[in-house]
């Protein structure tokens, strides 16, 4: 197994059913829910590409064809816009298509995040790679992935992103027990627990949806049985790797304090739409004064 290579591949699991957004997701993939005027998944792919990950593999499932269509060309629409001289809309339509080299693999059985990552084994091979969950949007100005990639190259292990949450909320996340490393801006992960009860949690450090993984994770996932919820949990495989001192083993973490939105949660989704719209030059000048007036009426 070759370590310390440049990282070029990203895996985006997108096979979930999106039941928290029913009925909107009855016929629409949750990843296609619009955040202002782009689907959530486009922000995630754009983040990967900004970090230098031009080779993107999306793990999809049944009824997810809209994801493939969104990143494909639409010659009829493009020709119509070009004929009208509507270059602005034409550029927007082509934006998703031009992002990078995007591939798709279907997860036949919905057996959890760990199984979805394992579906990427043939595409990834023996290289370190990033995993970006489609529910999590990270602010465009943040450099989280780049920082994590540097840590992976320096350590040869796997890297997770952690964020402090309120102790009573930790049961909604994977949770990490960590040790500080002198002179470094990342930490060593001693152990991981998937969605612990608050009284059993080793910390209030929650795993958020960004990972940079050693290819050794595939060997471990192949030996990992169903865990919480009867699914193959990526957290369980990382717990095993955290105890592994051989090359490619070990788990490290970057603590993230920037902007992050969980678009799988209705309230956080609404906040993402409002904040990102306010930051837009074409929308912010009209939306912010209206918000201030609307807030006075509450």
UniProtKB/TrEMBL annotation:
EC number: 2.7.7.9
Pfam families: NTP_transferase
Residue ranges of every copy of the Nucleotidyl transferase domain listed in the record: 9-275
Keyword terms, alphabetized: Nucleotidyltransferase, Transferase
Record-linked CDD domains: UGPase_prokaryotic (cd02541)
Family of the protein in this entry: Belongs to the UDPGP type 2 family.
NCBIfam families with a match to the protein in the record: galU (TIGR01099)
Protein name: UTP--glucose-1-phosphate uridylyltransferase
Species of origin: Zhihengliuella halotolerans
